[in-house]
Amino acid sequence: MLNILVVGGGAREHVIAETLAKSGDICSVMKNRNPGIARMSKEFLLHTETDVEVVREFAVSNGIELAVIGPESALEAGIVDVLKKAGIPAVGPDRAAARIETSKTFMRDLMERYNIQGRVRHRVFDSLEGLKEFIEELGQVAVKPVGLTGGKGVRIMGATEQLRNAEEAVDYARKVLDKKIGGESKVIIEERLLGEEVTIQGFCDGKIVVPTPAVQDHPHAFEGDHGPITGGMGSYSQPDGLLPFLTQGDYNTAVESMQLTIDAMRKEGTPYHGILYGQFVITKHGPKVVEFNARFGDPEAMNILPLLEGDFAELCMDIAQGTLEPAKVRFRPRATVCKYVVPEGYGVRSVAGKPIFVNEDAIRSTGARFYYASVNETGEGILTTSSRSLGVVGFGDSIQEAEQMAERALEHVSGEAIFIRHDIATPPSLEKRIRHMEEIKRGPG
Ligand code: GLY
Fold it and tell me: How far, in Å, from the CA of 59 to the mean position of ligand 1?
């Protein structure tokens, strides 16, 4: 059995640890005491994941032979560089390659330089000069800080409860510049993409991308896709790896953009080993890249890892060592629906520190799985934090079956201050998305 380190304490890392535990002994570093990860760890350290020297010492003293990194903040802090120097293979790009997520200007420039399909019209500004004119030229825009913001920095014009007009877009751009949101005084203005969002996660070994089933996340906090953008309230996938509105042609085009990006990274001298998370909008003119992330998605990891066949630890070694074989990567053809239990007020002002009760055996008896997220196991039970609490995943031969299983499982989770988006992957929600895609494909432009 390999000694494997999992870095991070969310539901994404819980599902990573669960999948790896089939072929290795798990050690973990996390800042909160996640009960699921703690229980399956031979040793765990409660410490911030960005303190890379402490993580390295913990890894070395526990004889770690493989590390899998969950959060982007640890990648930005150079955790993979440090582990590699200590002779520990890691799944996750080094600091230079992680710029695909940590710097939006790096990502957009790379796509331009290598003429990669899925590009969007954009410009980077370090002052307000010419910014209003550019917004007016594009019409509808997205305003993005250049650096990491934990998924909370992007504002979109015309989207519900976001930027109502060009003035508000300029005001928000000014705020990004003045407050250095994302770490530097730079803002990127991009054309707003009209269509449906899709996530495709790929395993990358420096040379090739092996794609996984497509997933659709639900970033808005409230039912009906209203409210503030969050880290993601839930997600679904279907047995054939596509989505109800996603064609095989559009999926293939999106994957090609990912492969071209990996080719470009290699040519730049920064080969990419790890998980490439492609977020696309499927527009009238095909898939456009919203962003690339340098890690599994959360919740999207919970849709794909439970379906993975074979030995995940071996696959991780192949990713780290550049020996991936596409034929060895297979997924069970099942639908999945993940719904997140979050603290009340999540996305605006979370009610944190409240108990959450999870009847684990009863959830298991429904056939669903559960993954603890940013909760803390204490002497008084499991307490919520300001972030997401628990992901519940249902499975089935159809999205409808998987959705019903997830709902049956959620009956066994309670708490005085929790919230769930029950509309995720229900028939009306799926129909809305199919209709939207049809309108987009028929529409002008
Ligand atoms: N689900 C959004 C993300 O992982 O970035």
Answer: 27
Burial 198-218 (b: 16+ CB within 10 A, else e): bbbbbbbbbeebbbbbbbbbb
- The full set of domain ranges for the chain reads 2-92, 121-191, 196-429
Measured in Å, residue 232 CA sits from the centre of ligand 1 at 6
Q: Ligand 1 site: residues with CB under 6 angstroms?
A: 151, 217, 231-232, 293, 297-298, 300
Q: What pLDDT band is residue 161 in, cutting at 50, 70 and 90?
A: low
Tell me if the domain spanning 121-191 has CATH number 3.40.50.1580. no
- Residue 87's pLDDT band (boundaries 50, 70, 90)? very high
Question: Hey, whose CA ends up nearest to atom 5 of ligand 1?
Answer: 297
Cα of 338 vs centre of ligand 1, distance in Å, is 13
Q: Buried b vs exposed e over 139-153: b needs ≥16 C-beta within 10 Å?
A: ebbbbbbbbbeeeeb
Average pLDDT score over residue span 228-250: 97
Ligand 1 atom nearest to 235, measured from its CA: 1
Q: Worst-scoring range by mean pLDDT, 49-53, 98-102, 156-160? A: 156-160
The listed CATH number (3.40.50.20, 2.60.40.420, 3.30.450.20, 1.10.287.3510) that belongs to domain 2-92: 3.40.50.20
In the prediction, which pLDDT does 221 show?
Answer: 95
* Tokens (6 digits) for 251: 């999926």
